[in-house]
Automatic annotation (TrEMBL):
Classification via CDD domains: EFh (cd00051)
SMART domains xrefs: EFh
Residue numbers spanned by region Disordered: 1-42
Highest taxon of source: Eukaryota
Organism: Caloenas nicobarica
Name of the protein in its database record: EFHD2 protein
Domain EF-hand: 51-86, 87-122
Name of the gene: Efhd2
Pfam families: AIF-1
Taxonomic lineage: Eukaryota, Metazoa, Chordata, Craniata, Vertebrata
Gene3D superfamilies assigned to the protein according to its UniProt record, in alphabetical order: EF-hand (1.10.238.10)
Length: 200
């Protein structure tokens, strides 16, 4: 009984090492540091394959010049220039602002993944810097990853389209049923009226 007690509270954390954004603490750098938890991309971003997550991590690390686990304004500026879609200072700030959940004015790996989640869900405006980043960085991922990402985005768009078409069909059917019920009601009312005139 002595051995488990001695080990209590000192269990090694599972997952990637501290040098990898995949093993980073979810809210590091937050004031107070309470409620810290390890961020697991594979657990939270299940829509992406492990290969895609690795490719995104590679891309993230490539532009994290300071190796601090964040992409700041200047690193994002360099990234967008290298991707062939340079942005204004304000444009870069807006890009960060759109996914900056902890409001630290820089992108953590989790916030970086949010860009791809929003792109996949069609939540990015066509002319936004984030849309350009998601679209152009697909080219920079390894070839298999590109196909996977492109297929995923297309499948997601198709699924959204199919779901909305399905909803429209259900609504149309419901409207048709309502109309038929209303017509039946009117016919019954007209028939009763007709009956009452014969009874008099």
């Amino acid at each position: 009984a002595e051995e488990p007690a001695g080990r209590r509270g000192r269990a090694p954390e599972p997952g990637p090492g501290p040098g990898s954004p995949l093993g980073r603490v979810g809210n590091e750098g937050s004031p107070g540091g309470g409620g810290r938890r390890v961020f697991s991309p594979a657990g939270e971003f299940r829509e992406f394959s492990r290969r895609q997550l690795r490719d995104m991590e590679r891309l993230f690390r490539q532009y994290d010049a300071g190796k601090d686990g964040f992409i700041d304004l200047m690193e994002l500026k360099l990234m967008m220039e290298k991707l062939g879609a340079p942005q204004t200072h304000l444009g870069l700030k807006n890009m960060i602002k759109e996914v900056d959940e902890d409001l630290d004015s820089k992108l953590s790996f989790r916030e970086f993944l949010l860009i791809f989640r929003k792109a996949a869900a069609g939540e990015l405006q066509e002319d936004s810097g984030l849309h350009a980043l998601a679209r152009l960085s697909e080219i920079d991922v390894s070839t298999e990853g590109v196909k996977g990402a492109k297929n995923f985005f297309e499948a997601k768009v198709q699924a959204i389209h199919d779901a909305s078409r399905f909803e429209e069909e259900i609504k149309a059917e419901q409207e048709e049923k309502k109309k038929q019920a209303e017509e039946l009601k009117q016919r019954k009312a007209a028939f009763k009226e007709l009956q009452s005139t014969f009874k008099q």
